[in-house]
Design brief:
single chain, 4-stranded antiparallel β-sheet, 7 helices
Length: 296
């Protein structure tokens, strides 16, 4: 499932290539036809990511809410950049109007299109088309039109996203919620009502970077420890948005021969700090990777 940095990068694509111009909205698959009709021909005035959900505001007061879930992905094509940051991408291939990019958990350049707009491929739930770019959505968990009040209600159910809230207010909210919970911190970090955007990769890496036992109840953690988790998540999220990669090793820690992550998917391999084998356990229906010595 895409983690928070991916959704922020997708929102940036919409800001850059779809905002401020008329958008033809359709549902090639047919399942979203009534919703598409409500948005067709209007301009996108805002693209916002909150955790794992994205919200597109149109000029007549309606919004498109999308949650990619496990199987969802956006396919962009046309005059687009290959990435969500705005800098020129060395990965871009071909003439501007021929670039194709899939954005989901990972970003993948696909073979260039030969004409614009390309024909929809597969079960496209919604297509957003301008004169220069097209975005096709497949397989989302949620895709719906919402009013401003409904968007506010959806966001109210989510924990703070460091890139969308005041940093101090978000930190205080996170610390207060964690401090009341008997739930293991490893589960709290994955609870989108507690903190937005963290998935399995960032969860494992944040806990290792903090040298925290994943099973420690939230209310047993010192406030300072919880604050550092918030600040480290903010740090890693910004790196992820800028690079498109889930880098969790600081530059001074990662040599050429080191893997990209400290513990994620390294079960059975030696911990990079103490040499003890990394453990994988099931927790809350998801795989949890941790070092039983450094995180004891």
């Amino acid at each position: 499932m895409p983690e928070g940095h991916s959704v922020h990068r997708i929102a940036r694509q919409f800001e850059r290539h779809f905002q401020g111009v008329p958008v033809a909205v359709s549902s090639p698959q047919g399942r979203f036809a009534p919703g598409a009709a409500q948005l067709d021909g209007h301009r996108i005035v805002r693209a916002m990511a909150v955790g794992k959900q994205m919200f597109l505001e149109f000029d007549h007061g309606l919004w498109l809410r999308v949650h990619l879930g496990i199987y969802g992905a956006w396919d962009f094509a046309g005059d687009i950049t290959a990435g969500g940051t705005g800098e020129a991408s060395t990965a871009s291939i071909g003439a501007p109007r021929l670039t194709r990019l899939r954005m989901s958990e990972q970003e993948q350049l696909a073979p260039d299109i030969q004409s614009f707009p390309p024909e929809p491929i597969g079960a496209v739930r919604v297509r957003l088309l301008t004169e220069a770019a097209v975005a096709d959505l497949r397989g989302p968990t949620a895709c719906e039109v919402q009013t401003a009040d409904e968007v506010a209600a959806s966001i109210a159910k989510l924990g703070p996203d460091p890139l969308e809230v005041d940093a101090t207010e978000g930190e205080e909210q996170f610390v207060a919620v964690v401090g009341r919970k008997p739930t293991p911190i490893a589960l709290l970090l994955m609870d989108q009502a507690v903190l937005s955007g963290i998935g399995n990769v960032y969860r494992a890496e944040l806990l290792f970077r903090a040298r925290l036992n994943p099973f420690t109840p939230g209310r047993e953690l010192a406030d300072g420890v919880v604050r550092e988790l918030w600040r480290d998540w903010t740090h890693l999220l910004r790196i992820g948005v800028e690079t498109g990669r889930m880098y969790t090793m600081d530059d001074e820690d990662s040599g050429e021969e080191r893997p990209e992550h400290w513990v994620y998917k390294r079960d059975g391999l030696p911990c990079l700090v103490c040499g003890t084998n990394v453990v994988m356990e099931e927790l809350g229906g998801r795989k949890l990777y941790w070092c039983p010595v450094d995180q004891a």
